[in-house]
Amino acid sequence: MTLPKHKNPRSDRTASTPYNFVPLPEKVIPAVPSADKLPDHDRYDVKRHTGYFDVTLTTRSPLYVRCPLTLDAFLRQERGEDEKLFKEKKISFRELIKNTPDFFYTHRLGEPVIPGSSLRGMLRSLLEVVSYGKLERVTEKKLFFRTVDDTAVGLYYRNRMVEKVESGFLVRSSDGYAIRVCQMARVNRNQLKGQVYQGSGPNKTPVWRNNSNQNYQWQPIWVKLSGNGRFVEDLALSSRPNYQEGRLVITGDAPRKTKEFVFLLPGENAEILNVPEAIIERFHDDDQITQWQTKAFPRKEPKENYRQRDGFLGTNPQGPGEPIFFLREQDELTFIGRAQMFRLPYQSTPHDLLPEELRKASVLDYADSLFGYVGRDDKQKRQGDKSQAYASRVNITDATLIGKPENLWLSEQPFTPKILASPKPTAFQHYLTQHNPDDRKKLNHYGSPPADTTLRGHKFYWHQNNPAVTEIEERDPKWLDENGRVKSDSTQHTLFRPVRDGVQFKFHVYFENLSDRELGALCWVLHPVGSEGKDYCHSLGMGKPLGMGAVKLEATLYLTNRAERYKSLFNGDEWKLGLEEPQSLSDRNVLIERTKTFEKHILSELAPEPTCEHLYGLKRIVMLLKMLEWPGYPAQASADLYLQTENRPNTRYMQLDEFKKRPVLSDPSAFGELTGKSEPIESVFFEKSTSGNWRNDLEGCQDDLENWIVQTYQSDVVNAEEKVKRILSLTQTHISGLELLIPQLIRKIQKRLANSAP
Q1: Where are the domains of the chain?
Q2: CA–CA separation, 158 vs 53, rounded Å?
Q3: I need a labelling partner for 585 at 20 to 30 A (CA). Which of 166, 382, 618, 639 fits?
């Protein structure tokens, strides 16, 4: 399989973010050929490994895992007491959850515990990357966008929208939703002066009578149109002879905006378009609401009530419905909006831009094999069939505090961190591979052909050393009140109380019936194997964009001899556990020995070129290790996006004016020279076939292929035969016509090798 490769931009086109991506795997490597090869859970296999890891977790930077609300808090909601709280203090139940600052605990408040589910997710995510697992959890929702700039996506938007948007009234009946198509006309704001509009205020924002446009939005208006019917010549707020009735539609402000809209009432024979329920649901998602819409259509009640209240969506029999702009393409309704240039769905979803080979549920990778799965095959199969579901063979306990440290918390009181926003995959210049990163008119986006781009890969946050409270706490004046506290009406902030760095926790990872390479995979994710002398940390909890959540794991392996375990009940005054001698994974020799079968399996599947002995010789894995490297790369708040003196990108979030230039996110290789250079032979093959123009020049292709194979035999005698078999197999599969020349090619290569032999 060939994937579109990402090209890093010039330093002046390089973006700055606290995260980056480990590239997609070139192929998915199965842990077992089929589900029936997985071991049963009702017996111990003497040829497999059972035991546990004793793991010490040390925080290297502040750590926070939020505690859920208590049972009492949920019971208060059931009793309706949260409504009283909202009326008195304007705090909703959702905000109460968001602003609960307590660290997760199980028995006593103030005694932090890291839930096993969080640790499990952390380890499984890492396993999916290092074992070349598949990606299934990718949204199938179409993302939305709206831009009219001069970039590739701006041109794409205008090509789909300009002069193609229509108007109508959205109505609802027992059969669902529909649009009654109508004519619309533009009305100059100056024509509204004195009646509904008083002119422009500071920054050219409109000044409406009564300081609100809500009094006039969708109100009846009578107009006289120009000759072409596209513009309003005159208007009135009451009926006049030869004037047509319509509804005034006021949309959001934009620079140099001078006009609003009038939707004329549709006639009896107006065209009617059915609107799928999916479009209505997506229309009301939070990511479709802009600031002006929030003011014009305030949500002070639940969404289901808001959608059904009188006068909305045409439920008022006296009204024509809700004025709506819409776009249809290929005679099908694409989407609807309250502004003429509304947000538009891309033609591809993120799921569409993930190659099918990387998301096949039927392939059982290491994450499936160790941590289990559900719903993988035909629902009609009998209960207990492993192809349908399989239970985990790894169990992870909660991590509990070691000792009673006197200085446990980062701050004695809860505090408000800088805004912790959710991921923004709509930033296509970051989330998609780019092959022309220096030309913003040629950037790939979610409307680009899948052959041109794909998802960047697995998202990780950079470690940023150990940030102080002052680097985490919100200090931006625009969010603070006169007392220096975050404004109470902010919906983007939260409260928390992290533990400081240097705090230790203990947890166990129990496992049953693991093969040599499965145990090796688990050892690798607990102790990432990189170049000697490097220090690696995992990421956990909230605040990772701010440098929080770096944790160091130190694991000791305890294997149990099941036969010895059950020979007798006691060992002197203690239980007989049948434990073998403990093995510390902090000992590099032990770690290398334990992980070698796992690494050998992955490397044999990939046949890397050039050959390497460890996974950290692979370019993709060394990018992963770069993201795990400690102490990482601290963000420099006031510095440029690219730090010339350090020859690397920054790790801070960009400002809005910096986003406008659409700089492109470099891959982790931009943070220093990578030690691993090897790539799977398939990737090298496709790269050579592209650069050497193999598909169009068979004679030149044959010469290149011959030279490559001879070079392989001369430089890598041990692995040459296997590599050459793969090269020839790829040639037959992907290069039409060359397979006919392979026999004579082999004879020619053999002759060259014989002549060059000593």
Answers
A1: 166-340, 692-756
A2: 57
A3: 618
